Structures are given as C-alpha cells and as structure tokens.
Amino acid sequence: MNRTVQAILLFLVGGVLLHAGVTGLYLRYVKAGLQPLVLAAGVVLVVAAAATVWYARRRPGGQRAPRVSWLLVLPVFALVLAAPPALGSYSAMRAGTAVTAPRIVTPLPAGNPVRLTVIDYADRAVYDHGRSLAGRTVTITGFVAFDSGGVPYLVRMLLNCCAADAQPVKVGLTGRVPPVLPPDSWLEITGGYSAEQVRDPVNGGTIPFVDVGQARPVPPPADPYESLG
Q1: Other C-beta atoms within 10 Å of 131: how many?
Q2: Ranges for the DUF1980 domain (predicted)?
Q3: Exposed end of the chain (fewer CB within 10 Å): N or C?
Q4: Partners of residue 156 on adjacent β-strands
Q5: Are 177 and 152 contacting, i.e. CB atoms less than 8 angstroms apart?
Q6: What is the pLDDT of residues 130-168, one digit of tens each?
Q7: pTM attached to this predicted model
C-alpha cells in the first residue's frame, strides 16, 4: 500500500467517525458519553491523512499500490451503509440480567408520575425492596421481549462501554398488560411497584415486575441503550 492509499483510508475512516459522532450513528456502537472521543478520533485521523499527503508530495516516488489494496475501502463504507441494528429481544433473552450487584438508591424527585430508566426502577425494586417506589407512579420505556413461557418483559440493554459488553435489564410486566405485544416493539409503561419477582434462568439474577396501569407504543429512541454513567 502506498502513501496515497494510506491517506485515502485515513481520511475515509476519520470522516466516518465524524459522521457517526455528529449524526448519532455512534450510539449503535458505544455509549453516549463517548461522543467526544469519537469526534476527537475522527479529527486526528483526518489530520493524519492530510499530513500523509503533505509528506508524499515532499518526497515523491514509491511503488504503485496494487489494486487489491482498494478493497480495504469497502469495510469503511459498510460502517455507514450497513450500520448494525440495536440489540433487541433475541440477544436480551439469551443473556443474564444486569441486576446482579447492589447500587446506591437515591430519593425520587417529587411529583407523579416520575420518569425512571429501566435500570433505576429495577435497582429500586430489587435492592431497595420497593421502599422508594411505595405510593409512587413511575414511567419507564423499553422494548418488549418474551421468555420461553410467553411472559412479557420490558427490556433495555445496559452498556458499560460499548455494544459488545451490553447486558439486558429485564422488568416483568403484570397488571393491565396489552393483549398483543410484538417482540422488539417499544413501549412506554406507566404504573407502580409490584412485589413480584422471578429468577433469571440464564444467570440467576433477580427480575422485578412493574404493575402496568397504562401502556402506549412509542418509536425507538435515538439512544436505544442505557448506561450507568
């Protein structure tokens, strides 16, 4: 590979990273807090491409790049043209729940309903035994998944860093559950704490339930994942 091909590849990869960071495409791969690093990496690669071109002009010559080296461009375009979908119910029900280690539970803000993430609701239901949820109405959003027995769950995938380490947070649905729930459809649930719990058959973690008062379909959010910071 000569310097011209190197510069083109660096520029394309940098451009893809900048495109992903600006448009939100990066959320398919890493958590939202890493956006500055994605943009910074894109800038560095574009600058490196410009420096490579400058160096090649200062020192002309070198071998012609074989045509096969241009195939290295194809994976770069694939990142834009064939972005992977967010992880859904298939992955979620084959992995153990992320609710396996106690986390700090802070007081809820005033007012009903209070909007919570799925992991926040699950932590309060499992480790706080629903004390902070008593008498409160909560709203949580996630996608629908079913276990082998047909029990419906509201799920969000929890990221530590990137989609490769994602773990599901599962909350069982009880109460006024809609009769028809397509897997991977997104729901906004408004309801209250339920003391019902089951064990996740994959890793033995605790899966809490929410008592559904109202459920409405919603479009998938721009960031389909949750994170702990």
Answers
A1: 11
A2: 125-225
A3: C
A4: 169
A5: yes
A6: 999 999 999 999 999 999 889 999 999 998 877 778 899
A7: 0.75
Residue given tokens 């397509």 in the structure block: 182
Identify residue 54 by its one-letter amino acid code: W
Tokens of 120: 């926040």
The 3-class SS string of the chain reads: CCHHHHHHHHHHHHHHHHHHHHHCHHHHCECHHHHHHHHHHHHHHHHHHHHHHHHHHHCCCCCCCCHHHHHHHHHHHHHHHCCCCCCCHHHHCCCCCCCCCCCCCCCCCCCCCEECCHHHHHHHHHCCCCHHHCCCCEEEEEEEEECCCCCEEEEEEEECCEHHHCEEEEEEEEECCCCCCCCCCEEEEEEEEEEEEEECCCCCCEEEEEEEEEEEECCCCCCCEEECC
Query: CA 216: distance to chain centroid?
Result: 21
pLDDT for the residue 196 = 95
